[in-house]
Design brief:
It is built from 6 helices and 6 strands; from the N terminus they run αααβαβββαββα. By secondary structure, the chain is of the alpha/beta class. Strands 4-3-2-1-5-6 form a 6-stranded mixed sheet.
């Protein structure tokens, strides 16, 4: 396992950064984090197996997978139980906003939820995209309008300066903060919104 960042954003002849190069040099036989090129490509193309005979499942990144498992909890009621057995359609009709497009958490969790049928708004510093079934679509939505229509909002911003504007959270929304900073979401104020989980 590689503890990132190793080189940070230091430019590299081999790719965007040396960290990207290191991540992509790991063989799929040794990758326990699901971050190498093969696993990422399969994730973003909704290919769930490494081989054509479908005997070896792809490894998924642990934090995004944990987020999906949390959202599958019957206590939250996010996943549609009737569609739970239907592969790739368990989140049909749901709108989710993921605030952060990092390659370790934000981008993979957005892809996993879109692969399960949700419309996912992927928000980063200066762009917002709609992810739908392996497609990255441009959108006219703003962070505010995306959050207001979302059934789920996931924040994972790696900055202690970021705060989710709670006026954007609609009643009944599920909010999950995976940011290393608990201040990203004011939980006491959030729980005052009707039906928020």
């Amino acid at each position: 396992m590689i503890y990132y960042p190793c080189f940070g954003s230091t430019p590299s002849f081999y790719g965007e950064s040396m960290d990207d190069y290191l991540r992509d040099e790991i063989s799929i036989e040794k990758d326990v984090e699901g971050l190498c090129h093969t696993y990422r490509r399969n994730l973003y193309n909704n290919k769930r197996f490494v081989d054509d005979s479908e005997t070896q499942k792809c490894i998924l990144p642990c934090t995004p997978l944990a987020l999906v498992k949390v959202l599958e909890s019957p206590l939250l009621g996010v996943y549609d139980k009737r569609k739970a057995r239907e592969e790739g359609n368990r989140m049909a009709g749901k709108v989710i906003t993921v605030i952060n497009r990092s390659p370790v958490v934000g981008r993979p969790v957005a892809a996993m939820l879109a692969n399960d049928g949700a419309d996912v708004y992927s928000i980063d510093i200066d762009t917002i995209y709609l992810m739908r079934r392996g497609k990255l679509l441009e959108t006219e939505e703003t962070p505010e309008s995306a959050c207001r229509q979302s059934d789920v909002i996931i924040t994972g911003v790696p900055s202690e300066d970021y705060r989710l504007d709670l006026s954007w959270v609609s009643p009944g929304t599920t909010v999950v903060n995976v940011s290393p900073f608990k201040e990203a979401v004011d939980v006491e104020e959030l729980l005052k919104i009707d039906g928020v989980k």
